[in-house]
Automatic annotation (TrEMBL):
It comes from the Eukaryota. This is Transcription initiation factor TFIID subunit 5. Its main location: nucleus. One of its GO terms (biological process) is transcription initiation at RNA polymerase II promoter. Residues 282-334 are annotated as: Disordered. It comes from Vidua macroura (Pin-tailed whydah). WD repeats lie at residues 364-405, 437-472, 479-510, 521-562, 563-596, 605-637. Keywords: Nucleus, Repeat, Transcription, Transcription regulation, WD repeat. Residues 282-293 have a biased composition (Acidic residues). It is found in: Nucleus. SUPFAM superfamilies: Taf5 N-terminal domain-like, WD40 repeat-like. Belongs to the WD repeat TAF5 family. One of its GO terms (molecular function) is RNA polymerase II general transcription initiation factor activity. The TFIID basal transcription factor complex plays a major role in the initiation of RNA polymerase II (Pol II)-dependent transcription. TFIID recognizes and binds promoters with or without a TATA box via its subunit TBP, a TATA-box-binding protein, and promotes assembly of the pre-initiation complex (PIC). The TFIID complex consists of TBP and TBP-associated factors (TAFs), including TAF1, TAF2, TAF3, TAF4, TAF5, TAF6, TAF7, TAF8, TAF9, TAF10, TAF11, TAF12 and TAF13. The TFIID complex structure can be divided into 3 modules TFIID-A, TFIID-B, and TFIID-C.
Length: 698
């Protein structure tokens, strides 16, 4: 089926599932990641607090146009799989009014304030050890009781309820409460996706068994059925055995649009190790034997070849099987590039607290057309900028100029057998430092060079991802799948595959030679704002405006990790070079560190005062660099941040994380620009740090 009407997905389970992509949604897409235009399908009813929801249906996606709905018997949050052309499984589209009708079972509207204040009084008077955990109920109950009053047209009671209790909610829900305060009539609810999210995705609370029993007993004694109904209908209480968590432990993990992740969501095995480097003989060319080649590189010594072999023989026990997903074959040019990479690595500066990197900052001046994306090639030879005027501009940052391949007529005159054929096919008349690529019809929000530097990806507000040739500087393909702005795109570290994420709340996996996506990753409750491949290319991380980070398995499309803890939309992701850890940055100015294998938050780096748009680990993973809208680059001691981690089974089972308050000990340096927000960071192969941003005169 074509991209406008939807794509079918075949899951690994027994039933086929399909995800909606087409259709007209009533909201207008804005030019910045905001509230998205697709919400989730109601999960199966009958899910009881604390009971494994495997019997329930799976939240998928909702659309106001006739389209498709995900249905699957699995207990994971999302479901997706292979695209199969033509075959589409259609189910009835849930009607918005049906989604909202759950609010019909109303109590006496005048008693809502009494119910809520009664529960509030009970929780505030309970023992300290239970109070922090039970306080998590305030926000979801407040939202659902307010919506129930609005839905049943008790507008004055709803207004009074909101005014009396909205000040009690945690500060990180302020943005959501602002949206909520604008919903004062039943008609408003039908077109509002945020509201539908509250209604359709169960809010997850993680509470110890003792606290839960206390709550249950109180509600049953008081015969407070209204609150008990909401708890059963709209909340998912994930009960664990053991000590209740402290306020500090809870605060670290909450704040997302749908509460915390269920513990089950982070149990799946993840192969976070690196793939074995392919073995190949390093050919000694004439230049090497003469001593130095044209770029002044030293002569390659024979033992180097043995090092490559010995290094690649060690198989990482946590690595995925080599053939778990098909990866492209290494071309001769790739092998040559790997050799160059190894030579550079031999000269790499070993970074650490005593040896910080030099930072080279590329400032875009006069970028009145709005710099919206930057990327730098792995060998640091080219830099690309995506701009709000819909252009993509590529610069050479070495003395070597950018040249296009000659026309077909000129190519026919070239001797194909000559040694310097690759030089001869380039047209000197086209040489320039800058090439401008035209094609998009909206701001360009994401750019990514292919590892072999032959291709460039760009994604835009126009809903397309474009693949450009860096040989001819022309557009080769326009990939159409997203119907709304695409906020980010990235090539796999092995090339061939790439990922995109956008305002339609889904991420898509593509291959350069397929015009339809291979996988559709559905599950986020708001825009997918950033995407990153794991170094072994078997997993993709996505960050979203729903304040969660998800890790997806490329092989089967399953969501294998959900990380909650950020208090604002996520804007940057970086995997450590060894594949074990993930760093994430958001509008809350915090960098959070995650252990992928255990599915745990292991650190929090505080210091930035504005959105973090760039994160990058140094080549050997000793240093983490972060760049922010606060006009600073900060360097953090990654080795120290990840040593002595508490990842025992108890911590994993209950989420009793104890984050060390050592941000200041880990901060190695802060470097201010004059007035330039930092939007991209890149470590060269020798560990020089390159940063980029557009000068802002305000």
């Amino acid at each position: 089926s074509d991209a406008d009407s939807g794509e079918a997905l075949l899951g690994r389970g027994t039933s086929a599932a399909a995800v909606a992509i087409g259709g007209n949604v009533a909201t207008v897409a804005t030019s910045s990641p905001g509230v998205a235009a697709v919400a989730a399908v109601p999960p199966g009813k009958g899910e009881v607090c604390g009971v494994d929801p495997s019997s329930a249906g799976t939240p998928g996606m909702w659309h106001s146009a006739p389209c498709l709905r995900v249905s699957s018997p699995s207990s994971t949050m999302t479901h997706s799989g292979d695209v199969i052309g033509g075959a589409v499984v259609v189910e009835d589209q849930p009607d918005v009014s049906a989604v909202l009708s759950a609010y019909n079972q109303q109590g006496d509207p005048t008693l809502y304030e009494e119910y809520y204040s009664g529960l509030k009084h009970f929780i505030e008077c309970s023992l300290d050890c239970h109070r922090a955990e039970l306080s998590q109920l305030f926000y979801p109950l407040f939202v659902h009781m307010y919506l129930e009053l609005v839905y049943n047209q008790h507008e004055s009671e709803a207004k009074s309820f909101f005014e009396r209790f909205h000040g009690d909610q945690e500060c990180y829900y302020q943005d959501d409460l602002r949206v909520l305060s604008s919903l004062t009539k039943k008609e408003h609810m039908k077109g509002n996706e945020t509201m539908l999210d509250f209604r359709t995705s169960k809010f997850v609370l993680r509470i110890s068994r003792d606290s839960y029993q206390l709550l249950k007993r109180h509600l049953q004694e008081k015969q407070n059925n209204q609150i008990w109904n909401i708890v059963q209908e709209h909340l998912y209480i994930d009960i664990f055995d053991g000590m209740p968590r402290s306020k500090q432990q809870i605060d670290a993990m909450v704040g997302s649009l749908a509460g915390e992740a269920k513990r089950e969501a982070n149990k799946a095995k993840v192969f976070f190790g690196l793939l074995k480097e392919p073995e190949f003989d390093v050919p000694l060319d004439d230049e090497d034997e003469e001593g130095e080649n044209e770029e002044g590189k030293p002569k390659k010594k024979k033992p180097k070849k043995d090092n490559v072999g010995s290094k690649s023989k060690k198989q990482d026990p946590n690595a995925p099987p080599q053939n778990r997903i098909p990866l492209p074959e290494l071309k001769d040019s790739d092998k040559l590039d790997k050799v160059m990479n190894m030579k550079e690595a031999a000269r790499r500066v070993r970074l650490g607290p005593e040896c910080l990197p030099s930072i080279c900052f590329y400032t875009f001046l006069n970028a009145y057309q709005g710099l919206t994306a930057v990327d730098i090639t792995d060998d640091s030879s080219m830099i690309v900028g995506g701009f709000a005027d819909s252009t993509v501009r590529v610069w050479s940052v070495t003395p070597k100029k950018l040249r296009s391949v000659k026309t077909a007529a000129d190519l026919s005159l070239i001797d194909k057998e000559s040694d310097d054929v690759l030089e001869r096919i380039m047209d000197e008349k086209t040489a320039s430092e800058l090439k401008i690529l035209y094609g998009h019809s909206g701001p360009v929000y994401g750019t990514s060079f292919s590892p072999d530097r032959n291709y460039l990806l760009s994604c835009s507000e126009d809903g397309t991802v474009r693949l450009w040739s860096l040989q001819t500087f022309t557009c080769l393909v326009g990939y159409k799948g997203h119907n709304y702005p695409v906020w980010d795109t990235q090539f796999s570290p092995y090339g061939y595959y790439f990922v995109s994420g956008g305002h339609d709340r889904v991420a898509r996996l593509w291959a350069t030679d397929h015009y339809q996506p291979l996988r559709i990753f559905a599950g986020h409750l708001a825009d997918v704002t950033c995407t990153r491949f794991h170094p072994n290319s078997n997993y993709i991380a996505t960050g979203s405006a729903d304040r969660t980070i998800r890790l997806w398995d490329v092989l089967n499309g399953n969501c294998v990790r959900i990380f909650t803890g950020h208090k604002g939309p996520i804007h940057s992701l970086a995997f450590s070079p060894n594949g074990r850890f993930l760093a994430t940055g958001a509008t809350d100015g915090r960098v959070l560190l995650w252990d992928i294998g255990h599915g745990l938050m292991v650190g929090e780096l505080k210091g930035h005062t504005d959105t973090i748009y760039a994160l990058r680990f140094s080549r050997d993973g000793e240093i983490l660099a972060s760049g922010s809208m606060d006009n600073t680059v900060r360097l953090w001691d990654a080795v120290k941040a990840f040593e002595d981690l508490e990842t025992d089974d108890f911590t994993t089972a209950t989420g009793h994380i104890n984050l060390p308050e050592n941000s200041q000990d880990l901060l190695l340096g802060t470097y201010m620009t004059k007035s330039t927000p930092v939007v991209h960071l890149h470590f060269t192969r020798r560990n020089l740090l390159l940063a980029a941003g557009a000068y802002s005169s305000q």
